[in-house]
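Running log. JK asked me to keep both predictions on one page so they can be read side by side. First protein, sequence followed by its tokens:
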Amino acid sequence: MRMLLPITAMIASSTLLLADDEARMRNLENRLTSLECSQDRCCVINPPARPYPAECWGFYVTVDPLIWQAHVGGLPLATQTSGSTNFFNNVGSSRVKNLKFDWDWGFRIGLGVNTTHDAWDVLLQWTYWNPDGRRNFRSSSDSTNFPHVGHPARTFNQTAGQVDGDWKMHYNVLDLENGREFYVSKFLSLRPHAGFRTLWIEQDYDVAYTELSPTTNPVLPTNRHDIDQNDRFWGLGIRGGIDTQWGVCWGWSLFSNYAGSLLYSYHKVHHREKGDPVDANTTLRVDDFHHVGSAIFDMQIGVRWDWLSCDCCYHLGLDLGWEHHWHPGQNQFLFFVDDGMDGKFVTNQGDLGIQGFFFRARFDF
């Protein structure tokens, strides 16, 4: 009997502890169920930063005037000597002459909808831009231009008195994204988003070398050589990122947005060269079509002002900021590099960088 008393006490204690644990678990489950069933649960866990009532239409539009500048790496026109007409000299230093890219206007417009499903929003956005760049220069009595573009067998042992370079681009981007903007603190909101991107980029790169000297090139005894190149690019893939807004006061805030894309894409390049006069010895036509995997990186930063109506149905937002878009390896023009191996060329000579200012007006209704 004395041995049974401690055992009985231990069993009773264990039973009481188990009952207490079960009661605590039931209490925790009841509290979670109550939280999940609460009508205001969206305002407790990551409350939405754009709380639109169900009776509102829920649509919004965006309009962005853009003033951007492009830069493409790997597009030098010629090397110009200084102080001497010889490439190798001890008088002056030579300088590589590159294109000068202009600032050009573009636009971006979007149509979105704020849904009642956990305050998600869907946005369809189109960007269009048509920039250009050019440069023209001549040689002088103590300088000359050594061509960079064109097949070396066609410009062998020649210099150009006049160089004219011209570059144009058509830039079209279509983005479809789904996101949710929510507060993580009193003055900081985040909007993660994911979706799809497709874009079309067409580049034209034309170079003309005139007043070629000497004209005793046995392959190209002409006074002019033109190189025309065209690259048509298309891509389709996934895109994701995060938008951040840092509230200050009186409707003013700072924002910074980041996104990246991975695309399945192709380049369709046309390379044309011709001399003057045009004949079989002065004409070159080469086409290149290949698929690649492409990456794009986008960034925006700026200042914002917001106004929201008392019933939360109408919202006006104004943004002013700076943005940058980076397209690695976008320069796929053909550059022939060997006059002994006529078909030898290199590509992937530079990136496409786009940067500039933008102004955005957004209206929700």
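And the second, directly underneath as requested:
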Amino acid sequence: MHSFLICQGTTKTRREKVRHLIARLRAESGNKSELIRSDPDTFILRPDPTIGIEAIRGIISSLKFKPFRSKAKIVVIIRADRMTREAQHAILKTLEEPAPNSFLILETRNQYSLIPTIRSRCQLMLATSPSPRSTIRGEAVDLARSLMEPSLSLRLKAVGEIDQKEAKARLRQILMLAREKMKLDPWWYQVVKLTHQAILDLDANVNPRLTLEHLALRFPQDRKGNDRNRGNS
């Protein structure tokens, strides 16, 4: 695996895990330098205040060249959740098919602040053990974000991946999340209403697949996009 996603924990524990991973990768690639900042084969990208598509394209372009000192190049993206939507999509192909002589490390507090396709292409490394509550909340945020996708095919794909036996439990996760967020943002009321109705339909023995597809068709599309879930998730 050439792509890593370091998340959860505190800023200190995440950065420490990043440093340890860099040290291990550098040692494995024959780089004996102890200074990361002066290493021409290690790139660290930080938000200012976000990370745009041009910055990502620059990193991708630099990976096309051979390393200077070691056998591999290492790219670290600090606060990867600050990547714009366009930047996240731009890095997907590199994460999926990285150069054989390169490694990518993404660091963020919450892995669910990144689009699902990025997470699926990275080896997840936790800076701390997640609590059951945070795991459930993360799953709810992930599903809600997928249901907000402008593309109907992506929304149907998201519900199509849900085990029908777990449909009610997954909808209850979204309902709990929406009720919590509704306290600060009235927009979530429509999510509460639709999700609650879907749960009632399941209680009435309506076909789970039809219920989920109906929810995907009617799920409210936020004009702000999936960013409504970002930051406080």
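Observation for JK regarding the second prediction: The chain has two domains: 3-129, 133-229.
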